[in-house]
Specification:
With 178 residues, the chain is mainly beta. The protein has a single domain, classed as Immunoglobulin-like (Sandwich), CATH 2.60.40. Helices cover 5% and strands 38% of the residues. The chain contains 2 helices and 14 strands. The strands form 4 sheets. A 6-stranded mixed β-sheet has the order 8-7-2-1-13-14. Strands 5-4-9-10 form a 4-stranded antiparallel β-sheet, with no helix packed on it. The chain has a two-stranded antiparallel sheet with strand order 3-6. The longest helix has 5 residues, at 69-73. The radius of gyration is 15 Å and the shape is globular. The two termini are 19 Å apart.
Amino acid sequence: MVINEVDYDNPGTDTAEFLELYNPGTTSFSLSNVSVVLVNGANSSSYLTTSLASLTSLAPGEYVVMGTTPVVSALPPAVRSLTFSMASDNIQNGAPDGVAVVSGATTVLDSLSWEGATTWDAGTISIPLQEGAASTAMLADSATDGGSIARVPNGSDTNVNATDFVFVGTPTPGARNP
């Protein structure tokens, strides 16, 4: 399972934020002990942890999207989702911030930091949130930024975020990246 796309900064108020996970594998992936941890890079602390256990598993080629109500309500019908609790500003967009998908307390399945490299202080250990070189793809709070950071090609994971993630002009929550 991989982090496949993130839209953390929208033009104006951040009301269309989302995080997309994807199973590029050939077998179902159990989510019984999996959580998504959003991290504030300014202090390396987690500010939102969401368990995925209620979704049970992720089938091969399946997406799950965590997003605001407008994003979730516009998803293709078969895409499973979780809705953020706030209408905006759920995913921090300072420099840098990040996300980790973890199994148990600290086993990182995938991670990504944006606007620079950062770490997560997971209590007993400090975990880098970038795989290999950090991605330089970033979003900006401007009238022209309608994009996201996405894995291109879709689901591709070389374990180097600078290679895997690029800016795309049209977000594709719950669908194949360009």
